[in-house]
Task: inverse folding
């Protein structure tokens, strides 16, 4: 029986293993992204791989979380995201540190996920959180950092699509809709499906202008003129209008800083309504059918940990970046030089010679016999 | 690079061709076995109807034409900007004429090409369900004792009638949709909006 048919070599679905050049490419992407984070004065946090299950806040991730019971009976979970852990650290270990805090991470998250389009159970995420400070300045800063990361990696033609959950939030504030209807409506706005948005609205549930504005959100995507269009369409609803104004401030700041090229407005971007509270964005690029990363503002999360503070962050998926760069043909260089074989001198002297070569920075392959 | 459009080789193809011709857009000739067909600056992929969402979700195709029934089953993460209005049908629960709802065991055995839709439909109503997944000729299943009922699409209801079945519940209404890959929507916005505009205009013409 050959080795490959041995049952123990079978791989569980959703896990990955990277070898040689591929591992090197991933490491190189990670190093370049981290250099950008460090360059903007963010501080690395290496959080634990698991923590108490109730630390992880996102309702959307709850069904995907690997949780287990610890020896003492407490419910624990493998981290399905980093943001909750960093928020906990900011409110706990770093309680005495004044805001704003700039923190970053790089590592695996684990999610129970049926493997499909670009999704694995083990995902490698690189991201940062800007906690406290001036919200608009922080929004603009993290977007500029996201753009710099993609630039530095040589991603061509990327687009940062900016939305704001306050638009839908403002429109639906006070509407008497049950949770299921609300979720269906959100999902149809997100799918940019005007017919579906109409179907999801029960007759008379919201005022006519609100219904029309919700349908309109499915087409409010594109360049800067979309903002003016949105301001006209949402003029009747001050909270929604205020959200668009915030978005305009950030978009204009980025534009005047020379980042207008890779920017798009997408008011139908409404994922994570239970989690995000302001700006949301996703990064897309030609060659990959799904986003390579994204983020947004989550001003209510830190209060869960007892230190209320506005916050914004984003993450880039290493797996998706590697795939995207591969598809765009922008492979980073692999190893520069072949190894020099050292051998034939006897074990002691041979090792001595190899160490000398190493001290001189030479890549060696030690081939000595005892 | 030209825009890539995934089309279903199945029942939606004729309606899609009508709409594209009305919109003055290129369309692949009906003969031929080629599955990747470049025509006048567009590239068409001819695939199975259940596969259209997959091609579009992965971005192998920038957009595609798929029935809402297929989208409900596959739940792809794509945009659905246009209800194209043709290919109208209903997803229904049907069972042998005269069989009473209380008949059979407490677990519903349902034969279907739509396992996700079928099981969600019964589970949401507090019914335990056993899904028998079939690739076609689903109407045969109850008569042969493979299932108590079926979840399938009906247009006229004639096939059901001929097989001694009647509709007992509506699950969802369906029609053909334009679906668009999320990255293409943003990264190739101008081409996509031209396509969306042309199809919307043709639909209402």
Result:
């Amino acid at each position: 029986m050959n080795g490959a048919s041995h049952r123990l070599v079978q791989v569980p679905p959703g896990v990955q293993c990277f070898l040689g050049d591929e591992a090197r490419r991933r490491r190189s992407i990670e190093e370049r992204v981290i250099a950008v984070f460090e360059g903007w004065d963010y501080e690395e946090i290496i959080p634990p791989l698991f923590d108490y299950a109730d630390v992880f806040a996102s309702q959307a991730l709850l069904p995907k979380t690997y949780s287990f019971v610890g020896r003492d009976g407490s419910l624990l979970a493998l981290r399905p995201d980093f943001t909750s852990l960093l928020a906990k650290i900011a409110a706990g270990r770093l309680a005495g540190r004044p805001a704003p805090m700039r923190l970053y991470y790089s590592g695996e998250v684990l999610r129970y996920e049926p493997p499909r389009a670009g999704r694995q159970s083990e995902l490698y995420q690189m991201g940062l959180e800007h906690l406290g400070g001036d919200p608009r300045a922080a929004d603009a800063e993290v977007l500029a950092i996201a753009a710099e990361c993609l630039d530095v990696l040589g991603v061509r033609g990327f687009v940062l699509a900016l939305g704001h959950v306050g638009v839908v939030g403002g429109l639906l504030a006070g509407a008497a809709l049950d949770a299921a209807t609300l979720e269906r409506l959100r999902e149809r706005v997100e799918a940019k499906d005007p017919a579906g948005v109409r179907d999801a609205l029960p007759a008379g549930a919201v005022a006519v202008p609100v219904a029309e504005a919700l349908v309109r959100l499915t087409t409010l995507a594109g360049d800067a003129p979309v903002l003016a269009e949105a301001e006209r369409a949402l003029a009747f609803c001050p909270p929604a209008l205020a959200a668009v104004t915030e978005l305009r401030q950030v978009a204009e700041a980025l534009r005047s800083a020379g980042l207008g090229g890779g920017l798009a407005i997408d008011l139908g971007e409404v994922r994570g309504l239970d989690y995000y509270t302001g700006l949301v964005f996703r990064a897309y690029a030609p060659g990959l059918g799904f986003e390579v990363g994204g983020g947004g503002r989550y001003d209510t999360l830190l209060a869960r940990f007892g230190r209320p503070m506005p916050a914004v962050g984003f993450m880039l998926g290493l797996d998706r970046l590697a795939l995207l760069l591969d598809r765009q043909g922008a492979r980073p260089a692999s190893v520069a030089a072949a190894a020099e074989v050292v051998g034939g001198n006897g074990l002691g002297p041979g090792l001595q010679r190899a160490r000398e070569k190493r001290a001189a920075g030479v890549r060696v392959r030690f081939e000595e016999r005892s | 690079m030209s825009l890539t459009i995934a089309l279903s080789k199945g029942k939606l193809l004729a309606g899609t061709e009508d709409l594209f011709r009305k919109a003055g857009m290129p369309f692949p000739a009906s003969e031929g076995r080629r599955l990747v067909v470049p025509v006048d600056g567009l590239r068409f992929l001819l695939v199975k109807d259940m596969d259209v969402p997959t091609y579009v979700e992965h971005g192998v195709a920038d957009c595609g034409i798929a029935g809402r029934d297929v989208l409900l089953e596959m739940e792809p993460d794509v945009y659905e900007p246009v209800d194209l209005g043709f290919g109208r049908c209903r997803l229904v629960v049907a069972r042998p004429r005269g069989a009473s709802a209380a008949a059979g065991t407490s677990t519903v055995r349902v034969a279907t090409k739509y396992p996700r839709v079928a099981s969600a439909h019964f589970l949401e109503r507090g019914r335990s369900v056993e899904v028998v997944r079939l690739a076609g000729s689903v109407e045969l299943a109850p008569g042969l004792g493979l299932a108590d009922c079926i979840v399938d699409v009906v247009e006229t209801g004639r096939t059901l009638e001929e097989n001694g079945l009647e509709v007992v519940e509506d699950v969802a209404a369906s029609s053909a949709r334009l679906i668009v890959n999320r990255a293409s929507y943003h990264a190739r916005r101008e081409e996509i909006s031209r396509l969306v505009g042309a199809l919307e205009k043709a639909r209402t013409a």
Remarks:
- Chain B has a mean pLDDT of 91.
- The first strand of chain B starts at residue 3 and ends at 8.
- Helices of chain B lie at 13-22, 52-57, 68-74, 115-124, 140-144, 158-162, 182-187, 189-204.
- Residues 189-204 of chain B form the longest helix (16 residues).
